[in-house]
Amino acid sequence: MSDYPDDLSHLTGSQLLRVFLDAVRTPPTTAVERAEFFDFKARVFALIAERDGNPDAAKAAARARADRDRVLARIETSNGGEK
């Protein structure tokens, strides 16, 4: 289970940035940790995109979701098709 916050809706823009920078400070080491990080990153950037209508943030969220899905697919493959 990750230490990333589930509910980001109450955070201001600067608080989102601090939470994200804290997450980046300690790089994930396992595939599961990487998937959790990319999921968190996608949620942060999706919220920024939603609030600000920022197309660059929307693209960053989409890339993070794609990265998460790629890592999850590798995990599933290495587990013989089971997540």
Question: What do these coordinates show?
Answer:
The protein has 83 residues and is mainly alpha-helical. It contains 3 helices and no strands. It has helices at 13-25, 31-52, 55-78. Helix 1 (13-25) packs antiparallel against helix 2 (31-52) and helix 2 packs antiparallel against helix 3. The longest helix is centred in the last third of the chain and has 24 residues, at 55-78. It is globular, with a radius of gyration of 13 Å. The protein starts with 12 loop residues before the first helix and ends in a 5-residue tail after the last helix. The model has no long low-confidence stretch (mean pLDDT 92).
Q: What's the number of helices?
A: 3
Rg measurement, Å: 13 Å
Number of strands: 0
Q: Give the overall average pLDDT.
A: 92
Order of helices and strands: HHH
The helix fraction, in percent, is over 70%
Q: Per the principal axes of the C-alpha atoms, what is the gross shape?
A: globular
Q: Low-confidence parts lasting 5 or more residues at pLDDT below 50?
A: none
Key features of this structure:
mainly alpha, 3 helices, globular
List the helices and strands and how they pair.
Layout: H1 13-25, H2 31-52, H3 55-78
Question: What does this entry show, briefly?
Answer:
The chain has helices at about 15-25, 30-50, 55-80. With about 80 residues, it is an all-alpha fold.
